Amino acid sequence: MGSDGQNWYLDLTYDQWVPLSVSGPRPAARYKHAAATVDGKLYIIGGSRNGRYLSDIQVFDLKSLTWSTIKLNSGVLPATSGHNMIMWENKLLFLAGHAKDVSDTVTVRFIDLQSYKCGVIETFGKLPVARGGQSITLFGSKLIMFGGEDRHRRLLNDISVLDLETMSWSTVETTQTSPAPRFDHTAALHADRYLLILGGCSHSIFFNDLHVLDLETMEWSQPQLQGDLVSPRAGHVGVTLGDNWYIIGGGDNKSGVPETLVLNMTKLVVSVLATVKGRDPLASEGLSVSSASLDGEKFLVSFGGYNGKYNNEVYVMRPKPRDVLHPKILQSPVAEVAAASVRAAYALTKPEKLDLPKREDSNFKEVHVDSAQQNLSAEISALGEQKKVLESSIADVRAENANLRTNLDDVNATHANLSKELQSVQGQLISERSRCAKLEAQIGELQKMLESMKSIEEEVQALRREKSELERDMGRASSVQKQGSGGAWKWITG
């Protein structure tokens, strides 16, 4: 798109990705870099290209649509890929990731955006093992790190927390079933309480599952998503605006995911927001997405990625404002029903731990009973509808199980028939081998006969030679005899 003036974003159509026409040179194409937007500028650090890690710092000005490169005044930034970056106070913090020279534990580095100084921040406590492809989520003044892959390719599913006030690491013990170890997933924080983990991969499996960690009870759950299908993917990215989680890109090593999804984290409903065609940069693995605010308008900004080729395009989307639905946990006397609704949505195994303290203020006492009863009836009706949906889903699953059993029986029958055919073929093979052995024995005897025939033929040839010699000797003797007798006669008669 063109850049007529510096208010180009006000003319964007809602919920559509648009490539930006960039002025001047662009940075090298890449993927698995780290990105963050600060004051209308997109910061890109590191990444990977053609198996080589990058260490440059690129800045894209969303007003002037121009790229520039940051030269550090002090410190060295190592070439890194698969790391994360967040803005904290006046510094960009970036941590973890793969590099050629890496320590045994996660390193936290910083770039001061005022002095352009770079360095390592000393951390304390139980330092997590070094890794790449992890997710890092800001929760108040803490960073929550989940999963990843260490430099020995060991997959992880642990939770570590870095307190940014004390720069101290701690590990978290969770209950219930944790997500399978994975990397290149994405994570989000909802309602300042729930950590959501979506997708990712192991070394052979790509996931499309959603896992939720209640940060108050430290219990994992795996709720079912409703709405549009989420295909298995890794290397995708996500960004939250209010209750909505926008999920872009990713792939399964065969093709990129062309759909941009929006997940309403309160309702747990997924919708397809936009779809791109072909090998679009937005259907890439290892791209980045950030949210930016320009004149009070929120935008999504995407950069880079790999989908058969490395990309360095900048795309923006102006998401349409959506309704914000917050759980009604702090209202009373409907609080218990609303909390039950939230627990049902997130399928927690110990819902009683979700109860929150009730507020002892004047507004709490002014709630009318009639209104509460109406709300209660509405909640009961909504739960009834959810029950119908669940019953329908259970019926579908049972029908699918019946079909699978039928298919399994067919497979078993086919296996039995194939086993019989295999036994028959094995019997034929045994008889053929026996016949081959007999033929080989006959061939051996014939070869011996041929060898004996050669010796007989040689004897015949020798006899023929002896016969010829005898015949020649007899001929010579006969001629000598004739010559002798003729001479004597002539002598007598002469």
UniProtKB/TrEMBL annotation:
Q: Which residues form the Acyl-CoA-binding domain?
A: 377-477
Recorded hits in InterPro entries, A to Z, give:
ACBP4-6_C, Gal_Oxase/kelch_b-propeller, Kelch-typ_b-propeller, Kelch_1
Cite the entry's keywords alphabetically: Kelch repeat, Repeat
Q: Where are the transmembrane segments?
A: none
Look up the domain of life of the source: Eukaryota
State the SUPFAM superfamilies in the record: Galactose oxidase, central domain, Myosin rod fragments
Q: Where is this region: Disordered?
A: 470-494
A Pfam entry, by short name: Kelch_1
PANTHER family listed in its UniProt record: ACYL-COA-BINDING DOMAIN-CONTAINING PROTEIN 5, OS02G0822800 PROTEIN
Q: What is this protein called?
A: Acyl-CoA-binding domain-containing protein
